[in-house]
Amino acid sequence: MAAKSARYHIEFLTCVAGMTLLAAAAGAQGAPIFGGLTYDSTTGTGFQSPFLPSFVPGITAGSGIGVGSTTKFNGNTSLGTRAVRLNAFSNNATELGNLGTNASGSTSSIAYALNADGTAVGFANKFNGNTSLGSRAVRWNASGTAATELGNLGTSGTGVSSTAAHAINDAGTIVGYARKYVGGAIQGDRAVRWTASDTVATELGNLGTSASGNTNSRAFALNSSGTAVGYAWKYSDGTYVGERAVRWDASGTAATELDNILGTDINGFASSYAYAVNTDGTAVGYSSKYIDGTYLGTRAVRWAAMGTDATELGNLGTNNAGNTFNEAYAVNTAGTCVGYALKYIDGTSVGSRAVRWDASGTDAIELGNLGTDDSGTTFSRAYAVNSAGTAVGYAEKRSGGANLGNRAVAWGVNGEAIDLNTLLSAADQPLWTLIEARGISDTGWVTGYGTFDPDGAGGLTAYNRVFLIQLPELTGGCNPADLACDNGTPLSIAPGCTNSSAGPNEGDYNAFFAADGFFFQAGLGIAAVGGSCDIACDNGSALSESPGCTNNGVNEGDYNCFFNNLFLPCV
Fold first, then answer.
1. Per-residue pLDDT for 6 more than 50?
2. Which SS3 state, helix, strand or coil, does residue 514 take?
3. For a Cys staple, 160 with which of 1, 134, 501, 505, CB 3.0–4.6 Å?
4. How high is the pLDDT of residue 550?
5. Torsions phi, psi for 511 (to 5 deg)
């Protein structure tokens, strides 16, 4: 990383381990943004009100391709939700095919996930004439828009069924669920697997059924080797005792119950879900927590790749009764997982925070935010993380305590939050407000949704729209002390500003010792994690070199790290 200036590559982005998002940006021209299908407010026709999965399965971003869903309108009349594909290289958005409509043209389809070659999966409603036959799992090939119906586990006597595909790996294996019918009678939803070579649904195992044969299970995610995770209802001697996280190995169909280490109520009831699984088989999700039969909320959990061992992941405090809620939504190849945790200070809630749990430990690392109210309250969540450790999600934006709404954000390994709106070009900033980011690929492409105003401050009505944007090659400051523009403005506030490539200078010194700099942030305690002066672990090692280290905010470690690097050149 010999230069400070950011280098933006529209065709391909190689993410560098240890990068920090807040230390660079897309440059003066901004990062190009690719919007979904458009809406004309003067005629009430087009597409708006998008939907992207928030965490199950959440893999909506590929290399220059993204998928999502949005509601179709004709003359202000809703025609249902439609799956769409965005393609940055051809600069277009395409409505994906369905399995028929009713007489008025209404139907619904949702794209949940895609793989490396752009094949997408989800579901579409099926119609026979004007009669709905329920939803069907579908696959959309990368080379076209036609929906291929995937098999089910039977139908009602009138042909109604319900299936959906939740995830697809690069081999084309798909998992999801299908409603099971026996003799036309419903026996619950079952996790299923479809192969790339055909459309036959293979029922995956469960954890028991009721006396009548009813149960429920779903597969949410799978890895490159075909290992799938999700949940299944558990029965003990025919009695329902809650949901349990399960794993299905690629070599068979049996459900392996993952350990529940956080207790049950007095009747043996508990809930746990596995939301994601990485290449080596490490799974993450959450479990309900009970102590002596008393419910204390949910806790993020990590399950080992080999075996079924569970590890409770840390939180950001509890209320006075010991209650809190936190969940892990995604895990990358290194075992880093992200999600959210409610935050408590002395038993008092101050909102929720996006958090990261590193593979080497269990501590919840609070990720940076975009401001709080006077009580320290704000809300944020991280939904996805790529192999470089870059996470995306949303954070409330506050200015002077006023809530300006959610903003799409990304976090680098140092935990600082960058508002993705600051990466937009000067031409795009009046048109877009990016609200939430939902997916990120290993090549830095991000999917999400935001508000789009076709003519800026003109007379046309703004509407919500899917977006696809690629993060710039965010090289970080050229060394840890490089935390500000040449004029002393923190890089987190003014990404893309003038910033000398020779090394840290007076601008960095002035920012570190500004009124809202080191001494102010040092008084914030753990709340300073992700701040502009939070550049080091407590032991003085740079965060960019020691991700996952002990970091309790801005303190002597940051002070020492700053002066140890202030007079060094770019590296």
1. no
2. coil
3. 134
4. 82
5. -65, -40
Report the distance separating Cα 563 and Cα 518, nearest Å: 12
Q: Are 61 and 447 in contact (CB under 8 A)?
A: yes
Kindly tell me the burial class for residue 292, based on how many C-beta atoms sit within 10 Å of its own C-beta (0-12, 13-18, 19 or more). exposed
Average pLDDT estimate for 488-504: 73
Of 368, 320, 363, 321, the closest CA to residue 345 belongs to: 320
DSSP E strands: which ranges in 417-549? 417-419, 432-440, 445-452, 463-470
Contact between 301 and 293 (Cβ < 8 Å): no
Integer-rounded Cα Rg, in Å, for the chain is: 24
Structure confidence by residue, pLDDT tens digits, 527-547: 676 678 989 889 999 876 765
Q: Is 215 helix (H, G, I), strand (E, B) or coil?
A: coil
CA 234 to chain centre: 28
Dump pLDDT digits (tens) for 72-81.
999 999 999 9
Burial (CB < 10 A; 0-12, 13-18, 19+), residue 343, is buried
Q: Which of 63-67, 394-398, 425-429, 566-570 has the lowest mean pLDDT?
A: 566-570
Nearest Cα to 64, choosing from 19, 15, 9, 26? 9
For residue 426, count CB atoms less than 10 angstroms from its CB and return exposed for 0-12, middle for 13-18, buried for 19 or more: exposed
Element (H, E) at 557: helix 556-565
* Distance (Å, whole) CA 482 – CA 562: 9
Distance CA 270, CA 264 (A): 5
Q: In terms of Cα–Cα distance, which of 183, 236, 187, 234 is closest to 214?
A: 187
What residues contact residue 546 under an 8 Å CB cut-off, 6+ apart?
A: 537
Structure tokens at 203: 């029922």
Distance from C-alpha of 330 to C-alpha of 229, rounded to nearest angstrom: 12
Chain-centre distance for alpha carbon 410? 10
Residue 475 bridge partners (DSSP): none
DSSP tag of 309: -
Amino acid, res. 214: N
Task: Identify whether 57 is preceded by a cis peptide bond (ω within 30 of 0).
Answer: yes
Q: What is the largest CA-CA distance in the chain?
A: 78
* Measured distance CA(464)–CA(470) in Å, rounded: 19
State the average pLDDT over residues 299-325: 96
DSSP label at 153? B
Could you report the per-residue pLDDT of 456-472, keeping only the tens digit for each?
A: 877 789 999 999 998 87
Residues 222 and 167: beta-carbon distance below 8 Å: yes
Predicted local distance difference test score (pLDDT) of residue 569: 83
Average pLDDT over residues 279-300: 97
Averaged pLDDT for residues 170-199: 97
CA atoms of 165 and 388, how far apart (whole Å): 27
